[in-house]
Amino acid sequence: MPNFVLCETAGRIATLTLNRPERLNAINYAMADELLACLDRLESEPDVGAVILTGAGERAFSAGGDIHEFSASVQQGVAPALRDFVRRGQSMTARLEAFSKPVIAAVNGLAYGGGCEITEAVHLAVASEAAVFAKPEIKLGMPPTFGGTQRLPRLAGRKRALELLLTGDSFSPQRALELGLVNQVVPPAELLPAARRLAERILRHSPLAVTSIINAVTRGLNMSIGEGLQMEGEQFARMVPSEDLREGLYAWIDRREAVYAGR
Q1: Of 51, 81, 90, 99, which one has the greatest count of Cβ atoms within 10 A?
Q2: Which helix (H) or strand (E) holds 239?
Q3: Residue in 34, 97, 120, 137 annotated catalytic
Q4: Are 108 and 121 in contact (CB under 8 A)?
Q5: Element (H, E) at 90
Q6: In what order do the strands lie in the sheet with 5-10?
């Protein structure tokens, strides 16, 4: 069986590579399932503190869902199409969004459709100057189905998101940066080093605090400000009895670098 997702760990950073370069890393059902299984495994790995997600080859991060496979599900009717394609894709992006460790997309080429939706869902993203983004689902006569109608407006604003969703036009990594879809644009040779540097800047800090911030932000986005503030308080309350908070406070008072368990 081919490995549609490659996993390599160096230091405390795991790199997951979408591995169908001959198909521009199009996301078939097996790849989506494999990615979910990798995330499940990495989340329980105490020696892994961050994940970088990229695409194999030089042409594409991911050109989106596998249209041939998806078309076969559509031909079977509404229920199979929803079950096999929509729910699988939404589960994949929701898992990335709610992952308890930071996930950084290293967008190395085309990020169309589902590839763009993965970029929207992950916590942080670095794009190569060679990257190209698009929301082309409308050209297939359909809306995005991996969360793109919901996450892109939250990132870019309603009118800017609708322009991209309704035209299907491609856009540059610089435009993606302006829209808040990525955090940084770098030369192609600097892509993975830049993603690793970003991960390492996060890994200096308490793993528990990192998870609490991800939880508060991800869950709070779908709440009112009052509910979000309550969520923020709950995340802080979980830190109060922790050794990480005590170490962080005492290190600051003692003017030394904090040392956290598992870091």
Answers
A1: 51
A2: helix 225-239
A3: 137
A4: no
A5: helix 87-98
A6: 5-10, 13-18, 50-55, 103-107, 124-128, 184-186
Model pLDDT, residue 261: 82
DSSP assigned state of 65? B
- pLDDT digit string (tens) for 29-56? 999 999 999 999 999 999 999 999 999 9
Q: Is 114 exposed, middle or buried (0-12, 13-18, 19+ CB in 10 A)?
A: buried
Report CA 204 to chain centroid distance, whole Å.
Answer: 21
DSSP 2: -
DSSP 135: -
Catalytic residue, chosen from 58, 117, 190, 232, is 117
| Below-50 pLDDT ranges, the chain | none
Q: Are 188 and 205 in contact (CB under 8 A)?
A: no
Q: Quick one: tokens of 116?
A: 């763009």
Q: Which residue has the tokens 């050794």?
A: 243
Using CA atoms in the order 3, 9, 15, 21, what is the torsion angle rounded to 10 degrees?
-30
pLDDT at 1: 59
Compute the distance between CA of residue 47 and CA of residue 53 in angstroms, rounded to an integer: 17
Mark whether 8 is an active-site residue: no
Number of neighbouring beta carbons within 10 Å of residue 219: 17
| Whole-number Å distance between alpha carbons of 101 and 123 | 9
For the beta carbon of residue 81, count every other beta carbon within 10 angstroms.
19
Are 176 and 156 a contacting pair, CB within 8 Å? no
